[in-house]
């Protein structure tokens, strides 16, 4: 069965998100842990989490994906911004531990003229402060498009971060189709080659989730602008190959396309038709 969902607003709580997902024939979903532009998380509602856990078990909701705010920059040049990233990630993970098996995805960050090596050092250093023995949440590094001073635009950079993490058994990768295509990994014409390279550099066992997005820009643009499925430069034929590839087909897929709920419902229906 194809495990697929979309990005939903967490403002109404976990149970509301799960019901919204089921209403569009999704069996998983992604959400921001707080405002994507930063700020404090809303008060924790343990009764909502308990109700969500019951609903998810009955309705077959798969592993959900929490997304850190965009303002989280673990390798920022300013110490106060790095401290903010540490506080946010620590609080987010402590809350996610109430939903065992949840994954937590974050953009590795921008080194802001410090250099990629310094960025990798700072990101892995923060992870070594945040991760703890026995945690049930898996933390994912997201593949990036390589714009500006982003870290994570190359598979080698993700591997370098993971290699420096002490509790790396709690680490994985979320592959974003728009990002890797914009970052010069040709998943349209050479999907096997890209996955072979990922396996050689990072290891396919680290690949835990897929952000499934088309791209508004051409191959190798390093722009990171998502498009609706089949309406961008990646195209519907490539997505059919992606969701059916033996190395990917059993992973959860999360849509981050520019859509409202009805648009997500159409994309989910389309991808389910293409899944063999």
**Strands, count:** 10
Please report the number of helical segments. 9
| Radius of gyration over all CA atoms, rounded | 18 Å
Strand content: 5-15%
Would you identify the regions where 5 or more consecutive residues have pLDDT less than 50? none
Query: Span from first to last CA?
Result: 9 Å
Series of H and E elements: EHEHEHEHEHEHHEEEHEH
Share of helical residues: 25-40%
Structural class: alpha/beta
Dominant shape: globular
Widest sheet, order of strands: 1-2-3-4-5-6-7-10
Main beta sheet strand tally, sense and closure: 8 strands, parallel, barrel
Walk me through this protein's architecture.
- By secondary structure, the protein is of the alpha/beta class.
- It has helices at residues 14-23, 46-59, 79-96, 116-130, 155-163, 177-182, 191-201, 236-244, 261-274, and strands spanning 4-8, 30-32, 65-67, 103-106, 138-142, 171-176, 207-212, 214-215, 226-227, 253-255.
- The strands form two sheets. Strands 1-2-3-4-5-6-7-10 form an eight-stranded parallel β-barrel. A two-stranded antiparallel sheet has the order 8-9.
- Strand 5, helix 5 and strand 6 (171-176) form a beta-alpha-beta unit.
- It is globular, with a radius of gyration of 18 Å.
- The termini are close together.
């Amino acid at each position: 069965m194809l495990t697929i969902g979309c990005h939903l607003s967490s403002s109404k709580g976990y149970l509301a998100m799960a019901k919204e997902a089921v209403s569009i024939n999704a069996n998983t979903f992604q959400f921001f842990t707080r405002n994507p532009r930063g700020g404090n998380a809303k008060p924790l509602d343990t009764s909502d989490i308990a109700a969500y856990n019951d609903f998810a078990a009955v309705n077959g909701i798969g592993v959900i994906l929490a997304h850190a705010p965009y303002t989280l920059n673990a390798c920022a040049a300013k110490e106060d911004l790095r401290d903010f990233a540490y506080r946010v990630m620590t609080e987010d993970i402590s809350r996610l531990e109430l939903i065992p098996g949840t994954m937590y995805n974050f953009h590795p960050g921008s080194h802001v003229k410090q250099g990629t090596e310094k960025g990798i050092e700072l990101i892995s250093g923060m992870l070594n402060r945040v991760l703890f023995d026995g945690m049930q949440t898996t933390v994912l590094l997201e593949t990036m498009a390589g714009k500006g001073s982003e870290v994570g635009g190359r598979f080698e950079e993700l591997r370098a971060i993971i290699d420096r993490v002490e509790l790396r058994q709690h680490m994985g990768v979320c592959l974003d189709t728009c990002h890797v295509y914009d970052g010069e990994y040709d998943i349209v014409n050479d999907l096997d080659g890209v996955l072979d390279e990922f396996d050689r550099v990072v290891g396919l066992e680290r690949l835990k989730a897929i952000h499934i997005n088309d791209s508004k820009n051409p191959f190798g643009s390093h722009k990171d602008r998502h498009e609706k499925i089949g309406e961008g430069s990646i195209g519907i034929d490539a997505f059919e190959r992606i969701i059916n590839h033996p190395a990917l087909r059993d992973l959860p897929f999360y849509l981050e396309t520019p859509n409202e709920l009805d648009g997500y419902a159409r994309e989910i229906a389309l991808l389910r038709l293409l899944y063999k």
